[in-house]
């Protein structure tokens, strides 16, 4: 009865997103819950179709050659990787950052039972993510294999085995992240850096896997023989999935034994993590003389501190800054390629360079969630003895600092590669900065018109907000209009006239939005509650 109650509690936590809104913290209506479930189902179907598109070419080449084990080994490792990466977040948040540790420990429940139940939740999440890649692989095998019955029957226990291995790896990965986060002084910055490193490694690994698959498909027989000799565990994994009973039995027994040893070794360390927080940095207070700063600097510093304290805010709203720096670096690294491109279309280079920088900078939407992120403490901002317009200016300056400055640096790097005339470079720089200001003002206006101050998670207003989607769509539309208008006008007007028209259009839009923010927008901020 006790274990059943704990399992029911964990399952409710796992499916809480379907029943409760993260924006307001309130229970969803029946129609909203059904709609959210349908949206999730559509996403799952799309992902499964993507994995089917990956499995079908492999099956069409490997299965006719009798290399069933190599097909299942390839798709099994893919499913395992997807499951581990997707479930590591569940492991870190549900297993190692639970908020009800004190409540559960105060009840007559053995800590081993708590650990076992929470690990079972991670196992269930691993199984769900794994099936998204494993089911399409089995379906493709059933359609193309000459004798698919053994492989289809063995695919069920193999899914359970792979989910167990993914659960062990996901828990260990989440544990490592928790240990690193405990010892970090600037946790948000560490999270951002680790996420960027992970994305870079994932992209590099994806490219490497694509190269290996191309080599494999080019010469399947020779590659499979070399792989079977060099990596016998892959041969065991693929053979078990293809219907070799001794390999399947050995793999099941080995996974069960490893899972039991894993739970036994982590049971006591998990109890220590539940009852203590070791390695956290202690705050030392020192008296020092405060340096007076201007009101503008104080408000901008407030926005910067808010940004630096939220890894979700940095990762989702400021990726354009990284993109601009990368684009500038690539333009210097591949300067000869950019120079050849400039020679091919000399008349359109300023327009295309400007539009490229504007497109990358449009990925930043720092001002859009900034009003909603004030949350229930918006009254603190309203109670300051300052005009509301100055608070809005600080939010605009944050966007200009983190987008306008990198955009200028990117243009300088691209100028070194394409060698535009100085006049055109100055016009391009001015046009890009006016677009950055327009993007900031549009996002701030949308944030004031569609605020959400009653969220329960910052991610609700940063990633899952309709206001954010509208801001991204508005930036995309602005980039498309700017690009299409200038490229079409180049056919009938000289380049200086085209760029002058774009500057007038952007300056007018900036002026109108700025006037609205200074008048009605400032009043809306003062009246929010």
Could you explain the architecture of this structure?
This protein has helices at about 1-15, 15-20, 30-60, 70-95, 100-105, 110-145, 150-180, 185-220, 220-230, 230-240, 245-275, 295-310, 310-315, 320-335, 335-345, 350-360, 380-385, 390-420, 420-450, 460, 465-490, 495-525. The protein is mostly helical and about 525 residues long. Helix 16 crosses helix 18 (about 390-420). The mean pLDDT is about 80.
Describe the structure concisely for a colleague:
This protein is mainly alpha-helical and about 525 residues long.
The total beta strand count reads 0
Number of helices: 22
Termini separation comes to 46 Å
- String of helices and strands: HHHHHHHHHHHHHHHHHHHHHH
Percent helix among the residues? over 70%
Portion of residues in beta strands equals under 5%
Major sheet attributes = none
């Amino acid at each position: 009865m006790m274990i059943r109650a704990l399992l029911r509690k964990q399952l409710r936590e796992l499916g809480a997103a379907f029943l409760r809104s993260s924006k307001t913290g309130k229970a969803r209506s029946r129609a909203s819950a059904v709609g959210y479930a349908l949206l999730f189902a559509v996403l799952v179907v799309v992902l499964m179709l993507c994995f089917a598109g990956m499995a079908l070419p492999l099956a069409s080449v490997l299965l006719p050659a009798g290399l069933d084990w190599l097909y299942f080994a390839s798709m099994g490792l893919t499913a395992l990787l997807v499951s581990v990466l997707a479930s590591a977040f569940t492991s870190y948040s549900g297993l190692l950052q639970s908020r009800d540790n004190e409540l559960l420990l105060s009840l007559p429940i053995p800590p081993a039972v708590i650990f076992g139940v929470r690990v079972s939740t991670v196992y269930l999440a691993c199984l769900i993510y794994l099936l998204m890649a494993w089911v399409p692989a089995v379906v493709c095998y059933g359609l193309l294999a000459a004798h698919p019955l053994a492989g289809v029957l063995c695919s069920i226990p193999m899914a359970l085995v792979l989910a167990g291995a993914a659960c062990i790896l996901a828990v260990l990965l989440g544990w490592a992240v928790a240990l690193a986060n405990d010892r970090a002084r600037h946790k948000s910055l560490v999270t951002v850096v680790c996420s960027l490193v992970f994305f870079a490694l994932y992209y590099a690994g994806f490219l490497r896997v694509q190269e290996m698959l191309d080599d494999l498909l080019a010469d399947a027989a020779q590659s499979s023989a070399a792989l079977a000799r060099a990596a016998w565990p892959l041969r065991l994994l693929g053979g078990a999935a293809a219907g070799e009973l001794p390999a399947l039995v050995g793999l099941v027994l080995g996974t069960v034994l490893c899972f039991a040893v894993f739970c036994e070794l982590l049971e006591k360390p998990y109890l220590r993590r539940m009852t203590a927080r070791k390695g956290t940095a202690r705050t030392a207070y020192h008296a020092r003389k405060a340096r007076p700063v201007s009101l503008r600097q104080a408000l901008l510093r407030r926005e910067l501190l808010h940004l630096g304290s939220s890894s979700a805010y940095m990762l989702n709203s400021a990726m354009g800054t990284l993109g601009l720096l990368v684009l500038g670096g690539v333009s210097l690294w591949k300067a000869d390629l950019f120079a050849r491109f400039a020679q091919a279309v000399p008349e359109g280079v300023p327009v295309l360079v400007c539009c490229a920088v504007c497109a990358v900078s449009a990925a930043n939407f720092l001002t859009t969630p900034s009003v909603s992120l004030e949350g229930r403490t918006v009254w603190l901002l309203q109670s300051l003895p300052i005009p509301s317009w100055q608070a809005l200016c600080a939010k605009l300056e944050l966007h200009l600092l983190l987008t306008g400055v990198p955009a200028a640096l990117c243009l300088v790097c691209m100028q070194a590669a394409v060698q535009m005339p100085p006049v055109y470079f100055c016009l391009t720089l001015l046009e890009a900065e006016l677009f950055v200001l327009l993007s900031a003002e549009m996002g701030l206006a949308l944030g004031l018109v569609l605020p959400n101050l009653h969220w329960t998670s910052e991610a609700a207003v940063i990633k899952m907000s309709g206001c954010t989607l509208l801001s991204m769509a508005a930036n995309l539309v602005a980039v498309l209009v700017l690009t299409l208008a200038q490229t079409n006008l180049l056919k009938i007007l000289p380049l200086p006239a085209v760029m002058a028209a774009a500057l007038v259009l952007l300056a007018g839009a900036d002026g109108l939005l700025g006037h609205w923010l200074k008048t009605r927008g400032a009043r809306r901020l003062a009246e929010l509650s």
